[in-house]
UniProtKB/TrEMBL annotation:
Pfam families: TetR_N. Keywords: DNA-binding, Transcription, Transcription regulation. PROSITE patterns: HTH_TETR_1, HTH_TETR_2. Residues 35-54 bind DNA. Residues 12-72 form the HTH tetR-type domain. It comes from Ornithinibacillus salinisoli. This is TetR/AcrR family transcriptional regulator. It comes from the Bacteria.
Length: 199
């Protein structure tokens, strides 16, 4: 008998709750310190029910890295590298990214673990690495456009883009304040200066 719409919705919610709990635990307790039992208890779901959605801990870990990235990738890439005014576009991009990254502490902690142990976690790292290349190259094209128009200082675009993406993650990991703290707005101007705007 096919599942009803309500049953499908409940299963989707349950799977998401498991995934959100796993992201939190993997980020705070690491891969070794996190067990399916701990995830099930924290998510208030039976141990066996976790395996309805995920084959094993490794698959759940991979999903914890890959699926949130898929969920926020469109927001991260939501800027126009062909904008008429590259400087204004860069400033708006920085504002959007600062706001977005302010709310992603657990996930970014998990990302740093994977990048730091990329040989141990090759599959999730590969997803992160491919996305980072795509993101960095898009920023690089916007920087190049600003330089060609004489609006930005001449410097190599890809290293600048790499510094920018690294800075965003670093800001988030070095702040224990809430995502709505006024401090986040104060990071916008110095972060934007990284691109070398000519005033």
């Amino acid at each position: 008998m096919p599942l009803s719409e309500e049953q499908r919705l409940n299963m989707k919610k349950r799977r998401q709750k498991i995934l959100d709990t796993a992201v939190h635990l993997f980020a705070t307790e690491g891969y070794e310190g996190t067990t399916i039992k701990k995830i099930a208890e924290a998510a208030e779901i039976s141990f066996g029910n976790v395996f309805t959605y995920f084959k094993d801990k490794e698959q759940l870990f991979i999903a914890s890295v890959v699926e949130p990235l898929e969920a926020i990738s469109d927001q991260i890439l939501d800027f126009n590298e062909h904008a008429e005014d590259p400087v204004a576009e860069l400033l708006e991009m920085v504002k959007k990214h600062i706001k977005l990254f302010a709310g992603e502490q657990n996930y970014l902690t998990l990302v740093v673990q994977v990048v730091g142990q990329h040989q141990r976690f090759p599959e999730p790292f590969d997803h992160l690495d491919q996305f980072h290349d795509k993101w960095r190259n898009k920023i690089g094209r916007l920087i190049e456009s600003g330089q060609e128009k004489g609006l930005l200082q001449k410097q190599e675009p890809i290293p600048v883009a790499t510094l920018y993406t690294s800075l965003l993650i670093g800001i988030r990991l070095n702040n224990t304040d809430t995502r709505y703290s006024n401090m986040w707005d104060q990071y916008i101007t110095p972060t934007f200066q990284l691109f070398g705007p000519i005033h």
